[in-house]
Amino acid sequence: MSAGSLAEVETQLLLASRFGYISESALAPVLTTTHAVARQLQALRNALSKKLAPTTPFPVSRSPFPSP
């Protein structure tokens, strides 16, 4: 969800620049920041997926009896 919100902010910034509400010189550092945040979000996603990765593959047998 956060990556989508970040992309939406970036789109709004680009539109603001295109329509003349923000100058290119003011836009550049903000876009640099959004790209840095995107990299941080990806790093967080990667770290969480490694941490939450299952240690046993599914399906996990829930029966105390061995399968035939």
Residues in helices, as a percent range: 55-70%
Domain unit count: 1
Enumerate the spans where pLDDT stays under 50 for 5 or more consecutive residues. none
Rg value? 22 Å
Q: What's the rounded overall pLDDT mean? A: 84
Q: How many E strands?
A: 0
Main β-sheet description = none
Query: Which class do the helix and strand fractions yield?
Result: mainly alpha
- How far apart the termini lie comes to 44 Å
Query: What is the strand content?
Result: under 5%
Order of helices and strands: HH
State the oligomer: single chain
Shape: rod-shaped
Counted by DSSP, the helix tally is 2
How would you sum up this structure, described in words?
Helix content is 66%, strand content 0%. The N and C termini lie far apart (44 Å). The protein is an all-alpha fold. The chain has two helices and no strands. The chain has one domain (2-51). Helix 1 runs antiparallel to helix 2 (24-51).
